[in-house]
Specification:
Largest sheet: 7 strands, mixed
GO biological process, one term: tetrahydrofolate interconversion
Bound molecules: ligand LMY7XDAE
GO molecular function, one term: methenyltetrahydrofolate cyclohydrolase activity
Distance between the termini: 19 Å
Strand order of the largest sheet: 1-2-12-9-8-6-7
Protein name: Bifunctional protein FolD
EC number: 1.5.1.5, 3.5.4.9
Pathway: One-carbon metabolism; tetrahydrofolate interconversion
Number of domains: 2
């Protein structure tokens, strides 16, 4: 963690360095992968399925494949054209479900509109669902069986970042999750609830969001609206986790240029908060690190070996 600058008298907010924490996680994954292989288990196998030609998805899938190889995993990628039918995607998922060398299956989202995302997610063997999106894994998390679930990577990474700042005991903290998506908002709320936080989930129909935010010790913003959370929404000393990744025009950088901003007005919020994630370099890198951790956990479970905790 490093400290940013603030014009107020208050100590500057600690900048939560997601890249550094992600590197610690992946170092541990590499070490534990070596241990699993030495114990007679196979190398963790990760299969990534990409349908279509979305440029950002190509970048993320490439990063996942490279990281998997770097950690000593068996890594396979299925790159399919936009014209691929739902039945063809389901057939590949079925083949990967049966392949004993594959412990983790990930279908990169978003899928093209002609493919039913829920149908594809539900076709993945829950034991190989390293994204943690399958209803069985979502359900296990919801009923407090996190130990048997695979948990969605981004919220799991956010929780680790919060714990790095506040320590292991979050009991009694007021947490506000802004956004109710299945991938981030809802599992984030479940994870914080299981840490005995008092959790509020806000969304587009919530009344007086600034007032809800001003009461929160922890804010997780995952709403997809550039710089929506303003500095005067923030309780002094709050911890802010910004999941937003919004590309906005940046004419100051030249014609047609863009820049990446989160859901939080960073400079304003950093002047009030005690700790904050930057965008980029905060939550994003944790997503891929937690994917690697989930794949290792799935491989340990398949091999009947003890699983590491992260
Ligand atoms: N099947 C899945 N699809 C998608 C997921 C997912 O977890 N599973 N999440 C996102 C995309 N994503 C990984 O897939 C992802 C997005 C962003 C980052 C990241 O590190 N971002 C950088 C900034 C990158 C930039 O400059 O554009 C950062 O925040 O520092 C990692 C992974 C949707 N699809």
């Amino acid at each position: 963690m490093t400290h940013g600058q603030s014009s107020s008298a208050k100590a500057p907010a600690a900048v939560i360095d997601g890249k550094a924490v992600a590197a610690e996680i992946t170092d541990k994954v590499a070490a534990e992968t070596g241990r699993l292989i030495a114990a007679g288990g196979v190398a963790p196998g990760l299969a990534v399925v990409l349908v279509g030609d979305d440029a950002a998805s190509q970048v993320y899938v490439g990063a996942k494949g490279r990281k998997a190889k770097e950690l000593g995993f068996h890594s396979v990628q299925h790159t399919l054209p936009l014209s691929t039918s739902e039945a063809e995607v389901l057939a590949i998922v079925d083949q990967l479900n049966r392949d004993p060398s594959i412990h983790g299956i990930l279908v990169q989202l978003p899928l093209p509109r002609h493919i039913d995302t829920s149908k594809v997610i539900e076709a993945i063997d829950p034991a190989k669902d390293v994204d943690g999106f399958h209803p069985i894994n979502v359900g296990r998390l919801a009923i407090g069986e996190r130990d048997r679930a695979l948990v969605s990577c981004t919220p799991a990474g956010c929780l680790l970042l919060i714990q790095r700042v506040l320590g292991g005991n979050l009991a009694g903290k007021d947490a506000l999750v802004i956004g109710r998506s299945n991938i981030v908002g809802k599992p984030m709320a479940q994870l914080l609830l299981q840490e005995s936080c008092t959790v509020t989930v806000a969304h587009s129909r919530s009344r007086d969001l600034p007032a809800l935010a001003r009461k929160a010790d922890i804010i997780v913003a995952a709403v997809g609206r550039p710089e929506m959370v303003r500095g005067d929404w923030v309780k002094p000393g709050a911890v802010i986790i910004d999941v937003g990744m919004n590309r906005i025009p940046a004419p100051e950088r030249g014609e047609g240029k863009t820049r990446l901003v989160g859901d939080v007005a960073y400079a304003e919020a950093a002047a009030i908060a005690s700790a904050i994630t930057p965008v980029p370099g905060g939550v994003g890198p944790m997503t891929i690190a937690m994917l690697m951790a989930n794949t290792l956990v799935a491989a340990c479970r398949a091999a009947g070996q003890p699983e590491p905790t992260f």
